[in-house]
Every structure is written in structure tokens, then in C-alpha cells.
Structure of Zinc finger DksA/TraR C4-type domain-containing protein:
Amino acid sequence: MKLNKRLMQETKTELLKEEVRLKEELANFTVILGAGKKNMTSYATTFPDFGDKSGENASEVASFNNNVSLKSLLEAELKDVEGALKRIANGTYGICKYCHKPIEEQRIKARPTSSSCVVCKKSFSK
């Protein structure tokens, strides 16, 4: 069963909004380096400048470390969102990349970036 057009459009709209949100959040503490692998945007975490006192320096290092971790999480989410948008564009969205069967509608609603059905995901998660 192929995804209905209404759900496909709603999902695309949701994914586009999420893409903008993720890019805006990344822009708060990174700089864009340019296109990296597979034409994906590459980001670098900026080092905060709180001042020159030793306490401020320690805060800068702690903040930088947190931002590096957050950057990795946001980039992974962005990669998933952009991948889902590419699958929509090329007509493969909603099809499991492993068994090539339709992904359950409930799974699409719960996790719009899914590229695999529940059965395949469970078998690979063991």
C-alpha cells in the first residue's frame, strides 16, 4: 500500500519545517564550512568568548564541549531529514530500503525520517 497523497504532503511540510529549525539551531553556535560528503552542508562549532578570566575560560571550554556534542546530534537529525526529503523527491519515500515493502503509516507518522519498516528495523536492532 502506497502512502496517500495527503499524508505525503503533510509529512513533506513537516520535514521542511524541521529542516529549517535544525539549520537555525545549528547557526546559533556553528559556522558553515561548505558542502561536504554527498553535497551535505558541513558545520564547525565556534569557540565561545566569555572573557579572559580563568572562570570564564573554564566556562568557554565547557560550553564548547557541549556545543560539539549538540552539533553532532543536530547534524545527524538534519541528515535524516534531508534524506527523507530526497526520498520524497525521487519517489522512494515510504518504501523500506531493506525489504522494499511499504513502511507502515503509523511508523511514518511517528518517525517521518524512517527509511525502514518496523520488521526490518527490529531484525537489525538485535
The longest strand covers residues 30-35. The chain has a mean pLDDT of 83. The radius of gyration is 19 Å. Helices lie at 5-27, 54-90, 105-110, 118-125.
